[in-house]
TrEMBL record:
Biased amino acid composition, Polar residues: 134-144
Coiled coil: none
Classification via Pfam families: AAA_lid_14 (PF25601), HTH_8 (PF02954), Response_reg (PF00072), Sigma54_activat (PF00158)
The protein's name in its UniProt record: Response regulator
Organism encoding this protein: Hufsiella arboris
Amino acid sequence: MKRILIIDDEINIGLLLSRFLNRNGFVVDTATNGNSAMEKLSENEYVLVLCDFRLEDTDGREILKKIKQLYPNTGVIIITGYSDIKLAVELIKLGAYDYITKPLYPDEILNTINKAIETQEALSKNSHEPLPVSESNTSKNGSSLPDGFVIGQSTTSKELVRQIQLIAPTNYSVILTGESGTGKESVAQSIHLQSPRKDKPFIAMDCGSLTKELAASEFFGHEKGSFTGALYTKIGHFEMANGGTLFLDEVGNLSYEIQAALLRTVQERKVKRIGSTKEIDLDVRIIVATNENFQQAIQNGRFREDLYHRFNEFSIHLPPLRERGKDIILFAENFLKIANQELNRNVTGFSEEVVECLLTYNWPGNVREMKNFIRRATLLSEGSLITLKSLPLEIATYAHISSYDGTTTNGVSQPAKTGLKNVALEAEYETILKVLKDVNFNKTKAAKILNIDRKTLYNKMKAINLK
């Protein structure tokens, strides 16, 4: 039975929650203050704590810190009577799984509790594994994940890890789909490193950069003198990956003729260098990736259906960064750690305003875009935190500009519709922010440059939510 601790100074709420959770199969204890809660935590092992933010002797922030320090395998959900995005961000950064507001709804509570427990169990299971980021070099240390690979806490991330663990031990060919920059090569490496082939080569090949003339030589190799310019014998990527894994990125860009040659090699598991009569036996696992719609490419005659079915023994879709929820902060923190090492800096985190920008921005370039952004912001940062001053305009202004008409898609704010008024607002906002950044956010100097008084500047900043 899974044991839960409820900490709330309102006895009736604790009693109602306790009865509800008991009916749903949980063992529940209650406490009305911080001291009694810590005593119960020392006496019993709890999978989850539901803690009211305001208590008579402390608050949820301090309870959360103590639990994370003393009982790191216990999940925490904070309950409060009001909604405050800055407080929610702070609590999540401190380690809370989620933050819910009163009044409490049974179905919502139960769903959040089940997800929190599932996440905590996954984190405990992987507590000795390195945290992820989607782009890294192949691991040289034989670990089960690529160096720097980040395991997120969201349902989407856990499902991705589950599929990797499911398919990795097999020899199945795998298709990885997803937008550019979502970390398909990192997932391919992870599959390789968790497979029986982990001690054999992992060879990555960018098919998007291959010309029709070069492709055959790169895939299959060639003998010296086999064609004009063949000044030496070349080993092809299939032969280099023999015994291991061959990762073909952007495979949809290959010409139809090369696809035909590739099909024969995949079917027969033999390769012959250009200009040679000797066939070489292959034992290669193939993982391919694309940001295109394969079905559409087949219908348009750009990709061979028979080759697609050879590759499609298993498929994994990588969600875009904007759909990764709170995992966005995990990715950002990991990239910050890497950037600090690269640049010999000691930036410890992000301001609350920047965290809100990270969670709101649409990330069209996905993980690759975030990695470059964090590196740039770390370099420009003047203090221990990355602040709005270090952000490029497109990220710093995204939330404010998209809020002009308040539209959202899948929970993500979308840019406002084009219109004369909106264009003027966007231009005014960008001008104000640029001037403020140029003068290190000195409002007196900014007002002078903008040729307006300070009061007008304050009013304009307030109108566009720039504080």
